[in-house]
Structures are given as C-alpha cells and as structure tokens.
C-alpha cells in the first residue's frame, strides 16, 4: 500500500506533497530535519493535512505528480473538502 500525503506548516503557511508507504514515519522525518536539502527543511511544525490511500506506488506517483502540476493552493484545499475529486483521480490513475 502506498499513500500520497499533503503536509501543512502553519509557521510558513505552505503545503508539501509527497508519497510514501509509511506516512507517520515520513512526517517525523520531515519535522526532524532528516531531509537536509528538501523544501520541508524550512519548518519543523509540519502537520498532516491530507492522506490518500493508493493501490500501489505507481498510482501514488501519478497522483502526486498531478497534484503538484496544478500549482494551486485552492486545488489542494478542495481535495480535503471535496472527496469526490480524490475518488475521480484515483480512478483516472488506476
């Protein structure tokens, strides 16, 4: 099982999109500064904004890429409030 996750940092007011098999462990790594050259190094208060379960890594990578290509804060916020968007995207990238 793989997941696409979206983190939010209140201190920087930014979102981060990634994919992993273990969301909780990845969140700890981002907050702990494990990724020295990542865009998440600017904060240590990342919180889980959204977690989407995918059938495999391939689907997760496609979904992650699509969300990043939108380059839209409003789109990311709509993903949390309108679950049909996620359902449609998961079918699209099956």
Automatic annotation (TrEMBL):
GO terms assigned for molecular function: endonuclease activity
Nuclease keyword on record: yes
Domain of life: Bacteria
Xref: SUPFAM superfamilies: GIY-YIG endonuclease
Keywords for this protein: Endonuclease, Hydrolase, Nuclease
Occurrences of domain GIY-YIG (ranges): 1-77
Pfam family of the protein (one): GIY-YIG
Name of this chain's protein: Endonuclease
The species this protein was found in: Roseivirga echinicomitans
